[in-house]
From TrEMBL:
Entry protein name: NADPH--hemoprotein reductase
UniProt cross-references to SUPFAM superfamilies, sorted A to Z: Ferredoxin reductase-like, C-terminal NADP-linked domain, Flavoproteins, Riboflavin synthase domain-like
Broad EC category: oxidoreductase
Transmembrane regions listed in the UniProt entry: 12-31, 124-145, 166-190, 290-316
Keywords: Electron transport, Flavoprotein, FMN, Membrane, Transmembrane, Transmembrane helix, Transport
Coiled coil segments of this chain: none
EC number: 1.6.2.4
Superkingdom: Bacteria
Keyword Ion transport belongs to the record: no
Length: 742
């Protein structure tokens, strides 16, 4: 939350200034490349400073100074008939190529970039913006790491859609460039305002003795002949007819003087290390002399307007979805506390209804996320905890720090609590986190207002009835009437189906859908806007389907990912199953309403460790999806159980292809109604030595299918890994064992 604030607030405030800096920076980044394109650069060692100066003087007898710009262009400053002038010259001939006139447009853009055209206060603001940019970049990177699940994951494809996705992708592309621009820009401002010590820029003092002899032609001066044009920064000519004057020379190595008669190098002072560092910081900021870096920095700067706009959209949406709770009193004044654990905000809707119900009963309420558990609630006598469960029985995002904070919590004498769990009975760990929270509060010695209750699939009816029971127990009128909005769905059209298993009383179908094109505008198709379009998904994510006449959606594991171009699920028809029955009678061209739920807790880890996939029946769906995606050919083994090879061998042809192209390393099937009468557990047991070795080497096991099969598999695996002195729970805690069970 804190990280999000650091990332969001200054980001929002500074967006306009940052956009100005970024766009002007991007325009200025073209300058080094344009200069470079307009410049003739001799090869190293081809032209010495003496040769260049001699050629220039031939064409410009009144030459006063020769400057070699960072891009390699040579400019001569001269005086002709009392009139000063500056020309860009050809270094090979010394001829003028064009008058040197810095573009008024670029000067104006540079002023806008450096100081917002406001001189000193503007420069200060620009410096401040560099610091803001640095903060936004660092906090943004940490957010991205948190979101993707680790530094290594930053290079993997992102999931999600709409503004969030565009924001994350652009940030990933631009982050290094933006960090470099912000760091170097901040450094330059700090130098300018004296916050950092300025490197000593004292050149050598004028030599005490010069020969004072007859000046020799510049082309013959020895010290200048020794220096290659590529090293030259600046050569200032002596005053005409002043024999006591000397050439003043600055090169990339340092500065000194050259006697105009003897051609001797009179005093040479190498450049200080601090000044070399400063020059490099300037080059890394402006791209001067590094035209390609300039272009890269310019391209990254161009992402800033898009990052600002998408960032503001994301921020605004988040603000709206967790809309500030009205009538939220401070902790010290609250009679009742509501703490919310939620990942996707559904539980917040229930919390708001509870808060408004309690307010109507004259009770002062403080409501916040569970992560914000205070050390104590001095005035409160009631604590309500409403929380969902995620992953595999884990805490949702807004409750992840709850258990650790609970260690410092002091409940007091009068505070009593009630936990209300939100979950889905399709998960074997139904409301697991809520149950753990309830037990942890009891273990702290707190007493309950009411025993824990568990709400299945956001049932409004169950919630409202719970409110009735709480009302009786607290002796206050509490009337809750809440019906959550169903999730936003999109229309999907069945494009293909393959049917199996009818002969063995296990009708199972592979169903492939495409998003119905009806009602989708071209820009929705292009940008995949979150409304009216499916977000990106991976095999193992979930497809929610609304059965006609049903109140709550059913979730099915996806066998495909976005890049496959279809939404594929594998569905076993359940006796009297409302949704599976509905899906099974669909014909090609029929439409359903569906939505995607991400399920990042069930997918193979990245890396080259072996993966053992275990499933039965329709559980093969997401497992096949993982194999299809295994284009890096990591060792992947599938153990799968069906009834009969003739009737329900799902995905048989596809699996054959995957074996051939090595996306699948080994396939082991077990059929319960064939002569072998085998189950998937038996096959695992047969291979126990190999399986154990793979687990020892860090193999990950993913199990998908019915609850009975999964518990059988756990028993067998416990036996297999016993010699390693571990069990399935150890593997689970290490992330080596994942389940998607229904
Ligand atoms: C990826 C995923 C994993 C889930 N895991 C569980 C689980 O392990 N146990 C459970 O009871 N519910 C689980 N659920 C269901 C959610 O807890 C339930 O939908 C809840 O109402 C979501 O509330 P929220 O939007 O406030 O987070 C899961 C849902 C999703 C999408």
């Amino acid at each position: 939350m804190m990280l999000r604030k650091i990332h969001g607030l200054p980001g929002l405030f500074a967006a306009i200034f940052l956009m100005t800096l970024a766009v002007t920076g991007a325009i200025l980044s073209l300058v080094p490349a344009m200069d470079r394109a307009a410049t003739l650069i001799p090869a190293a060692g081809e032209v010495s400073v003496a040769e260049l100066a001699g050629r220039v003087v031939d064409h410009y007898p009144g030459a006063e100074q020769i400057v070699r710009g960072a891009s390699g262009g040579v400019i001569v400053y001269y005086n002709r008939d009392g009139q000063p002038g500056a020309d860009l010259v050809n270094p090979l001939t010394g001829e003028g190529m064009a008058p040197y006139e810095p573009s008024a447009f670029f000067i104006w853009i540079k002023d806008l970039h450096r100081s917002f055209l406001l001189d000193s206060p503007g420069r200060m603001l620009a410096g401040l913006m560099a610091v803001v940019m640095l903060l936004v970049c660092i906090s943004g990177t940490l957010l991205l790491v948190r979101r993707t699940g680790g530094w290594r994951a930053l290079l993997r494809p992102f999931t999600g859609s709409g503004s969030t996705r565009i924001h994350a992708e652009l940030a990933r592309f631009a982050i290094l460039g933006l960090l470099l621009s912000a760091l170097t820009g901040g450094y330059m401002s700090a130098l300018r305002f004296g916050l950092l010590p300025e490197p000593p820029e004292t050149g050598p003092t004028f030599p005490a003795e010069v020969s004072g002899g007859q000046p020799a032609p510049v082309a013959t001066l020895a010290a200048l002949s020794d220096i290659d044009l590529g090293e030259l920064r600046e050569l200032v000519f002596p005053y005409p007819d002043d024999r006591q004057d000397a050439y003043s020379l600055t090169t990339s190595e340092g500065a000194g003087f050259v006697d105009q008669a003897t051609g001797e190098l009179l005093k040479f002072q190498p450049r200080a290390a601090a000044s070399v560092f400063q020059k490099w910081m300037v080059r890394l900021h402006t791209g001067e002399g590094l035209w390609w870096l300039g272009l890269v920095l310019g391209a990254t700067a161009l992402t800033v307007p898009a990052l600002s706009l998408t960032g503001i959209t994301v921020w605004w949406r988040r603000r709206r979805s967790s809309a500030q709770l009205a009538n939220n009193v401070s902790i010290s004044r609250a009679d009742a506390i509501i703490l919310v654990g939620s990942e996707n905000n559904a539980t917040w809707g229930f919390a708001r209804e509870l808060q408004s119900g309690l307010n109507k009963a004259g009770i002062q309420v403080h409501c916040s996320e569970m992560n914000a558990l205070a050390e104590t609630y001095p005035q409160a006598s009631m604590l309500f905890i409403l929380t969902s469960t995620y992953g595999d029985g884990d805490a949702p995002a807004s409750a992840r720090r709850f258990m650790s904070r609970l260690a410092y919590f002091r409940g007091g004498e009068t505070l009593r609590y009630a936990v209300l769990g939100f979950g889905d009975k399709q998960f074997s760990t139904f409301c697991q986190f809520a149950l753990e929270v309830d037990a942890a509060l009891a273990a702290k010695g707190l007493s309950r207002i009411h025993k824990i209750e568990l709400i299945d699939r956001c049932s409004g009816t169950q919630f409202n009835q719970w409110g009735g029971r709480i009302s009786e127990l607290i002796g206050r009128p509490l009337s809750l009437s809440y019906e959550p909005l169903p999730p936003a769905t999109v229309t999907l059209e069945l494009v293909e189906r393959a049917d199996y298993g009818v002969a063995v009383q296990a009708p199972t179908s592979i169903l492939r859908f495409r998003q119905s094109r009806l009602g989708r505008s071209w820009w929705q198709a292009f940008f995949k806007a979150s409304r009216g379009s499916l977000p990106d998904f991976e095999a193992g994510d979930l497809l929610g389907v609304m059965p006609p006449g049903g109140h709550s959606p059913r979730l099915y594991s996806l066998a495909s990912s976005t890049s496959d171009g279809v939404i594929e699920i594998c569905v076993r028809k359940q006796p009297d199953g409302l949704c599976s029955g509905f899906l099974h009678q669909l014909k090609r061209g029929d439409r359903i309403e569906g939505f995607i739920r991400q399920n990042p807790g069930f997918r193979p880890a990245v890396g080259s460790a072996p993966v053992i996939l275990i499933g039965a029946g329709a559980g093969i769906g997401p497992l096949t999806g993982f194999i299809r995606k295994n284009t890096r050919r990591n060792p992947m083994f599938l153990y799968w159980g069906g009834r009969s090879p003739q009737s329900d061998f799902l995905y048989q042809p596809e699996l054959g292809c995957y074996l051939e192209d090595h996306r699948l390393t080994g396939l082991n099937t077990a059929f319960s109604r064939s002569v072998e009468h085998a189950y998937v557990q038996d096959k695992l047991m047969e291979d126990q030595v190999a399986v154990r070795q793979m687990i020892e080497r860090g193999a990950q096991i993913l199990v998908c299918g019915g609850r009975g099969m999964a518990s059988g598999v756990r028993l067998v695996l416990d036996e297999i890994v016993r010699p390693l002195r571990i069990d399935v729970e150890t593997l689970r805690s290490r992330g080596q064992y994942l389940e998607d069970v229904y």
